[in-house]
Amino acid sequence: MSKIEIACFNPESTIIAFENGANRIELCAGLSEGGTTPDFQSTKDLREKINIPIFVMIRPRGGDFTYSDAEFEQMKKDITALKSLNVDGFVFGILDENDEVNVEQNKTLVELASPLPCTFHRAFDRAKGLEESLEKVIDCGFTTILTSGQKPNVSEGKENLKKLVALSNGRIEILVGGGLRSSNIEDIREATKADYFHSSAITDGGAFVNPDEVVALKNK
């Protein structure tokens, strides 16, 4: 049995993932943008319906991961507001203009989210340097990194993922995601020795989680 976080971009998907055995939800809006901050009310409604951990995406827009002062303020406001809903954690990641982990801004958000845990999302895969970025993310206080090993998908990133799991040495969880499906999870787990896996479980190019895929991911 694998530990599985399902990325859900709408309420229907969240319920499907919950009912079919997901261990955790990454709640987002903006499927076409790769995930943005969901709205307050839909998050509130879902929190009342499901009792597994919900980690909420904090990302004011699609595109790159370097934010203006106004966007950074928005991220702070969103964390404060959504924290009041008894969510279980947050997912975000800020890079500076040199595509390096922005330690100062990330640390500010991690402290604002405290005591809730934070995941550094796939901005990590755009960051310069595997080991340097890992150490910076750990220094910021994140508990998890969502990554495909700084490659376009988990299959191409296998070697880097294996290296990250070894380098992290239990100091931070390496959450493996990016093109992960039930068809490749066994191979990826074997190669990387990771413990936690992330997938949208969307198999038809649409917007909704496939219940059978959630079950298959769990049972592999």
Automatic annotation (TrEMBL):
<dbReference type="InterPro" id="IPR005627">
    <property type="entry name" value="CutC-like"/>
</dbReference>
<dbReference type="GO" id="GO:0005737">
    <property type="term" value="C:cytoplasm"/>
</dbReference>
<dbReference type="InterPro" id="IPR036822">
    <property type="entry name" value="CutC-like_dom_sf"/>
</dbReference>
<keyword id="KW-0963">Cytoplasm</keyword>
<protein>
    <recommendedName>
        <fullName>PF03932 family protein CutC</fullName>
    </recommendedName>
</protein>
<dbReference type="GO" id="GO:0005507">
    <property type="term" value="F:copper ion binding"/>
</dbReference>
<dbReference type="Pfam" id="PF03932">
    <property type="entry name" value="CutC"/>
</dbReference>
<comment type="similarity">
    <text>Belongs to the CutC family.</text>
</comment>
